[in-house]
Design brief:
Elements (H helix, E strand, L loop, with lengths): L1 H16 L7 E4 L3 E4 L6 E4 L9 E4 L5 E5 L3 E4 L4 E6 L11 E4 L6 E6 L10 E7 L8 E10 L3 E9 L6 E7 L4 E8 L2 E2 L4 E4 L17 E3 L5 E6 L10 E7 L6 E6 L6 E6 L5 E6 L10 E8 L5 H5 L3 E7 L4 E6 L5 E5 L4 E5 L11 E7 L35 E3 L6 E5 L7 E6 L5 E7 L4 E5 L6 E9 L2 E10 L2
Length: about 475
């Protein structure tokens, strides 16, 4: 009978764990949240100032339980929990994560890291009991050191291959060591699986490259990580992809990817075939530089093909920047865009290149401002039903230029297609320097040929009527 009850409990709590509603509410940014329980996200209020790393957890019905920015823990009523002040970072950790304690219906771990590779904090866990405080929760244990090693600001989690236990992954700063901690019904193992693999951090000014993200693929078989390097020191940047063994916790098969400098956000597509990244050029970069949103195609499985598959999807001039990328319950990837009242949205992230349909002003936050982070939780493997979207959901007439700026060629794209279209290119002084004709199709490939670097204006006409005037930037 005891064995039968144990089997029932394992099945029951595994079903709860896999119910995939624990990330249905987000709290981030300037006291703003999103509720995905009707699949289409609805803006809600919150108490989190949310500068960088944030994590929110919900129950099996998708109702919010609590949330944190590493410093404080807020309950579902947006009040700080009893004992809810954890560490002091001013909310500047790149990532923090909440995970359930396996086979428990009321206990949750919060895991916090270390600010920019400094030694004034440790990798810590904190325990929340949702059965206390009238069901609003209480922090019953906090500031428990998990490791005295100096780790980066990055932390992520995925389910063990048994579907019940959880792996928590972080990275030691200044070395090539990944640390995989197994979390079971007995607690967090104090001894991590250490894999020495891939590039090590090259310490730089303020150890700023300890910032960035670690992300698992939804199926838990791959992991990507980066380093938020500084301008003028390419060796401070890292962007890499690995295989993850979600049975043993070991990491293997590194693929070093070409970085764009200042790497910060990462996310895999729902079908695990694409990797997205975004940059936040924060230190020692000039206002003449750009931050980028980009995609890699992983489907070939061939390192050189993956590395060469990088496609730029969007760019914004410094100091404007991107932040965290997060795969939502609706199967779309949301892009933090600092100090904007919108989130960027990758509407069809399983598709290649510009077909993924990135919209820079994809989700209005009701007048509130986004900061650098979104919600960090174990990635979903199933998604709510209304995930099908048109190729261009914002406006079928929208013309995208990807990449922009560019050095050799760029692509003009519109879902409606170009019919009897003429592109006329003018230099900064208004002199016509190039002209192209496109009779049909959704894309126009524009090559710079012998044009010098600089700013140009493109007038697009269809059937002799001016459609739009766009700006392009050609770099060396």
């Amino acid at each position: 009978m005891k064995q039968l009850l144990l089997c029932f409990s394992i099945v029951f709590f595994t079903v709860i764990a896999q119910a995939q509603k624990y990330g249905n509410v987000w709290q981030f940014g300037d006291h703003v949240g999103l509720d995905f329980n009707n699949c289409n996200p609805v803006v809600v209020n919150g108490s989190n100032p949310g500068f960088e790393g944030c994590s929110t957890i919900c129950d099996s019905l998708g109702q919010i339980l609590f949330y944190t920015n590493s410093d404080s823990v807020w309950d579902r009523f947006n009040n700080v929990m009893p004992n809810g002040f954890l560490i002091f970072t001013s909310g500047t950790l790149s990532q923090v994560i909440i995970i359930p304690k396996p086979l428990s219906s009321n206990l949750y771990y919060i895991l916090t890291t270390i600010v920019q590779g400094n030694n004034n904090l440790t990798l810590q866990y904190h325990l929340v009991d949702m059965a206390l405080n009238g069901g609003a929760g209480d922090v019953i244990s906090k500031n428990n050191t998990l490791s005295s090693l100096i780790v980066t600001e990055q932390i992520a989690a995925t389910y063990h291959s048994n579907g019940t236990d959880i792996w928590v992954l972080t990275h030691e700063y200044g070395t090539s060591n990944f640390l995989s901690y197994l979390v079971t019904s007995n607690g967090i193992s104090p001894t991590p699986v250490i894999t020495n693999i891939g590039p090590a951090h090259n310490p730089c000014v303020s150890n700023i490259n300890a910032r960035g993200e670690i992300k698992f693929s939804p199926d838990g078989t791959k992991v990507a990580y980066n380093a938020n390097g500084i301008g003028g020191a390419d060796s401070s940047n890292i962007l890499a992809l690995f295989d993850f063994n979600n049975t043993s916790g070991a990491i293997s098969n590194p693929i070093i990817l070409p970085f764009s400098r200042g790497e910060f956000g990462l996310s895999f597509s729902p079908d695990n075939s694409k990797l997205y990244g975004a940059t936040w050029k924060a230190f020692n970069f000039s206002i003449n530089e750009y931050n980028y949103l980009y995609q890699f195609d992983l489907s070939s499985g061939i390192p050189s093909t993956i590395s060469n598959s990088k496609q730029l999807l969007d760019s914004t001039q410094v100091p404007k920047s991107y932040g965290s990328l997060k795969l939502g319950p609706d199967g779309k990837i949301y892009v933090a865009t600092y100090a904007k009242q919108y989130l960027g949205v990758i509407n069809s992230p399983n598709l290649s290149g510009i077909q993924c349909n990135y919209t820079s002003s994809g989700l209005y936050l009701g007048g509130k401002l986004c900061k650098f982070s979104l919600n960090n939780y174990i990635e979903y493997t199933t998604y709510c039903t209304n995930t099908s979207v048109p190729i261009i959901s914002h406006s079928d007439n929208e013309i995208k230029i990807i990449p922009n700026p560019f050095s050799t060629q760029t692509v003009f794209y519109t879902a409606n297609g170009f019919q009897n279209t003429k592109l006329t290119v003018y230099n900064y002084f208004g002199q016509k320097v190039k002209e192209m004709i496109k009779n049909s199709g959704q894309t126009i490939t524009f090559s710079r040929d012998d044009l010098p670097s600089g700013i140009y204006f493109v007038q697009i006409t269809q059937d002799n009527k001016i459609v739009t005037l766009e700006k392009i930037v050609i770099t060396d």
